[in-house]
Prior knowledge:
Blueprint: H1 9-30, H2 53-61, E1 73-76, H3 81-89, H4 98-111, H5 114-120, H6 127-131, H7 135-147, H8 169-174, H9 186-189, E2 206-209, H10 215-244, H11 250-271, H12 281-295, H13 317-323, H14 325-332, H15 365-389, H16 398-409, H17 414-430, H18 435-458, H19 469-486, H20 489-500, H21 513-517, H22 519-544, H23 546-559, H24 568-577, H25 591-602, H26 633-636, H27 639-642, H28 653-661, E3 665-668, E4 677-680, H29 684-694, H30 706-719, H31 721-725, H32 728-754, H33 767-774, H34 783-799, H35 802-809, E5 817-818, E6 825-826
Parallel strand pairs: 1-2
Antiparallel strand pairs: 3-4, 5-6
Helix pairs in contact: 1-3, 1-4, 3-7, 4-7, 10-11, 10-17, 10-30, 11-17, 11-22, 11-30, 14-15, 15-16, 15-20, 16-17, 18-19, 18-22, 22-32, 23-25, 25-33, 28-30, 32-33, 32-34
Amino acid sequence: MPPQGLVSSYQQYKKDTDSIAAWLASTAKSCGYPSDLLTGGPANKPASTRLKGKARAEAKKKQATTTLPTTNKYIIKIKEFVPLAEFVASKREVSVSGSFIATLRRVIVARGGFGEKLAQHGAVPDELSDAKHGYFVGILEKVYEVLKPRVKIGLIDSSPAPSSDESDADDFANRFASLQVYEPSDDFLNAPDLERPKPLEGDKITYEAEQATSLEDLLVVVTMLINDINKIRARIQWIWSNYKDGLFDLAVAAIATNTAIDLARNLMEEVEPMFKDHGGLWKVLNRWYLVQMMMKGYEPFDLFKNDSTDNFNYDTYDIADGTYILTCRLISAFIPVIQPGNVPLYKDGMFGYYDPQSDRASKTGYQKFEEDRVLLMTIFTELMAVVRGIENYPVEDEFLRGIRELANTKQVSFYIVFAAQVFLDIHYTLREHAGKCFETLEKNLKSFDREIEEYFSFHINLKIDNWPARNDAMLREYQRKIRWILQDPGHQVKIKAYRQTGQTPPVSMEANRLLKMSPVLSGLMLYHFRSEIWDVGIALANAWGSITYSLHLYNALRSEKLLSRTWKDMDLVRTLLGDSSFFVGDAPGNLDQYMKKFCLQMGTTVAAFTKNRRGKVVLESRAGPRGIKDGAPVSLMFMDRYLRGTGQVDWKPEDIARIIDLGMWETEGSEEDGTLILGQIDDPEKLKQKAKTRRGKGSENAKLSPEQLIRALTFALQGETLELSVSYISMHRECWSLLRAVRKHCDPLLRELYTAAYMERETELCFVVGWIFLEPVKDRSTTLLLEARDAVDQFVRKEGTTVLGLLNDLDMPVEFVTEKNDSEAEL
């Protein structure tokens, strides 16, 4: 069971209802109520299987000692609630817990008044639903009255059972909340978990309440569901509004958005099977749209009061927008044009043109619908080009995934409607700024391409066993894939589709339209290649030891106060990755520790640096070399899905809560007064709590709703953006160039002290740092360290900001401040 709080309104409601059924059935059974009278019967009877041949003979031999597995689940019919309650009430030894009564009241209040309000507005459309009107609430109220005398004294007030009349119109209207994000109070966040009644101890049966199937019951559930997903929808709009203002990275916004749709889909999948008995998704949404219209004061015949040819009243566009009915209608229109093997080609201008610079707020309902139609018709062709013509497209968002399912099944699911609506919302939030998303992606991809090319130029004659040729081949494949995406494989698919039909591709058919139109796909594509380059960069640095051993030398020079300037690139990397990635234990701070810590990190012994290494001298320590530890723990959790294409896609709230727990960043200040900032967690107590949480001992995010989880995930990802964006390939080249400069400057003295054999080939360049640290200490200083100081100081002055320059080119400038207590430059 997910932690309390990681559930939707409907899930809370269902858990409450099931717990009432479980307590009634379990308590009645313990008092002698026969199990066979639980008319719901076993919910999962074992299937009958007829064995043959040898298997049948073996089964007969075991018949005396083998029994069929017994069922462990019962469905309790709603009509049994009152008989069960009356049986329990007849037993004097039974007392009713306060948690049972509190849960019962919650369900009554949740349902109370719903049917009556529907009836008042003429929204109960058939005799069957009218006959069942208020039936379930009446059952619950009767159970309350029957069991109230058995309640433990002091556990419940003396007020009468809450009835449908207690739920006023304002409360009902609040169920249809507009798109707003409401932050929970501290009292709510710190409140104890909801307590529900449980089956009696020792009862191993799982009981569930029968699912009510009337239209009224369905509309209650749909109301809860749409309120929940509208909060998620509002959070997604918040993400992209902040992206537009420059507060969130594109990849962060895309991952958080797609995860939010995952969570919405998880909520929908539990409810959507109920739609089948009422005509499917379209009819259910249409009924709910009509209810919304009537709740807003429209009459049923107002639906047709317009001049449109499709008999839809576009004056009610804003109501339709909140009910997803128009988006569902547009997605359904795709089905007739989906043909096996074909790419549906949308002709630009067929339904007008989308003008992102126009003022949407001043448009009529029909004009807004026209924007919806143009955007969805255009993107549909682009998505279908991927579905029909590209087998290995690097990333897939929920919209593309939904179109792929639609093409295969010809069935419209609620989640694809939601994904399509989110696509529209993002465009209407960004308007003319939507084009920036592809520009950002394009700039990054071209930068990655240059990084790889510069790597091969740098290493043309520089090879090492720890970095085999297959790794270089993999890098070339990455580069080929980058260029393939920039050339737009979907564009070629559409050109082919036009030629197959004897048409000439229109001049207006621009390249990369899919990524230009889809900020989410652009952001996921950015994450895909960024994380790929990050992964390669860390592996490269570990194979060569370039960054680690350069930092050991830099740290020694800084600790001895020998440098006149800071190496900003290294300060950035050290701050982001932490000293634990480079040192065993604390960073060394004196001449006695530099060599020891260097050897521990390198995985070798001091004996490796002796002049005469004859005999059987063990040069490698048992621990072996230590590389840079994986960082960006939250971002890395999405690599399997968006980089390798193998990860989880059915994210649930408890999964996201555990991912957020891995984060090492926290927010300070508030959004409301503009003081919100992100900072790395450095408080020892908070770090201990983080470690405890990662070991599975409680989650600080266990009480967040889905939309609140998305907010927390967005900040957690944003905190790691800089770490994931640093060019570790470039940093490797920079550090290797530094070691070259140090070796060249110190070479005469190194030869004098250790002979020319101190380094036989350039791949041993990292050992230069060890030879410098090995020099005997004289008067608390070493000549080699002083010589190295001159080389490092000169190099840092000329080439020490290559990485920062690349980040600045990608519109990610970094600033440093100086801590007064130690005069160290901090990020």
